[in-house]
Amino acid sequence: MYGVVEQSNGTLKIDSQPGIGTAVHLFLPRSQESEDAVQERHEARSRERANARVLVVDDDAEVRQVTVEMLRQLGYEVAGVENGQAALDRLDRGETFDLLLIDIAMPGFSGFETVRRARRRWPDLRVLYATGFADLTGGGDGTGDDPRIKKPFHLADLSAAMRSAVGKR
Q1: Which run of H or of E encompasses 163?
Q2: What is the pTM of this model?
Q3: Helix (H, G, I), strand (E, B) or coil at 110
Q4: Are residues 79 and 148 both part of a single domain?
Q5: Residue 39 lies in a domain
């Protein structure tokens, strides 16, 4: 829950008193858009409905779930796994994905290592790296020109990054 609140530029407050109970207060920013603008954006997303299957790879369960839900809102078919080995296992079982959206910094195989291993068998695999830490420019780390998105990201940023990444071959 906190991941969704944080990605929405909100916060939460927890009040707890022994013997009385706990209350969780969510504070989300008010939209600055008019209802018409929101409806227009929603209709545009509905028209965008991607025909791509995406595998989200992130070791943080909350971030992974938020990302999966955002992608579903954008019309993608999505699966999520917790690490690079799990991603490779899904690919080895013959599951096909049009794109990996993968965290760079993970225990075990990093996102970079996972992609290097995957591309030995599937050289045309498209990738969108997600990172909260690394430089977004890429190239010098062996990832070529695979696109990256900075975490935390908003739905509009993810939509644009996905359109770009899915279109790459």
Answers
A1: helix 155-167
A2: 0.70
A3: coil
A4: yes
A5: no
Q: How far apart are CA 38 and CA 56, in angstroms?
A: 27
Q: Is the peptide bond before 123 cis (omega within 30 degrees of 0)?
A: no
DSSP secondary-structure letter at 124? T
CA distance 67 to 62: 9
Q: How many domains does the chain have?
A: 2
Do 77 and 158 lie in one domain? The reply is yes
Estimate the share of the chain in helix, then strand, then coil, as percent rounded to the nearest 5.
40, 20, 40
What Å distances lie between residue 79 and 2, 9, 23, 123, CA to CA?
21, 25, 33, 21
> What 3-state class would DSSP assign to 159?
helix
Here the CATH number for the domain that contains residue 111 is: 3.40.50.2300
Distance CA 61, CA 57 (A): 10
Per residue in 122-136, pLDDT (tens digit) is 999 999 999 987 555
Boundaries of domain holding 12 = 1-29
Q: What are phi and psi of 145, to 5 degrees?
A: -105, 25
- Residue range 64-75, pLDDT digits in tens: 999 999 999 999
58 and 4, same domain (yes or no): no
